[in-house]
Amino acid sequence: MAAAPRYVTCLFGSMKSGKFTQRSTEAKAARGTFVRWCAENNVRHVSDFQHFDIGGYQYNEALSSEDTFVFTHQGRPLRCPMGAAIVRLGSVSGAAQEASPRKARSGDSRRLRRPI
User: Fold this and answer.
1) Which of 5, 37, 76, 100 is deepest in the core (most CB within 10 A)?
2) What is the total count of domains within the chain?
3) What percent of the chain has pLDDT over 70?
4) CB atoms within 10 A of CB 26
């Protein structure tokens, strides 16, 4: 019989005034980067999570428990470590936007042209 799956909570934040705090936008970006890192590094075991160190985050053993892994950063974290690539891809001239079909307006009887 297969073992039951193990669920682990991963928290991403910083230490402020001796307390762990999470900022939602930064934590969301860190979670996305973490998932991508797991896929790119073919992570198979929960213990491998502790090696994540992108965007200034490091595993914090003192705050972590068996079922909760806490990653903290020193200084200001990158808002989205992969953000630069996303911006470049999204702003590749206007060609991608021009290639998409235009929206039909009410009363517009012309056929929409689609790129070939």
Assistant:
1) 37
2) 1
3) 64
4) 20
- Domain annotation covers residue 4: no
DSSP 51: G
Task: Look at residue 48 and tell me if it is in a domain.
Answer: yes
Give dist(CA 59, CA 10) in Å, integer: 10
Question: Does residue 56 sit within a domain?
Answer: yes
CA atoms within 13 A on the CB side of 73: 20
**Sign, Cα dihedral of 40, 29, 65, 19:** positive
pLDDT at res. 18: 87
Q: What's the pLDDT score for residue 101?
A: 46
User: DSSP per residue over 1-50, as a string?
Assistant: -PPPPP--EEEEEEEETTEEE--HHHHHHHHHHHHHHHHHTT--SGGGGG
Pick from 57, 23, 21, 20: nearest CA to 37? 57
Give residue 55's pLDDT band: very low, low, confident or very high (50, 70, 90).
confident
Structure token digits, residue 66: 């068996």
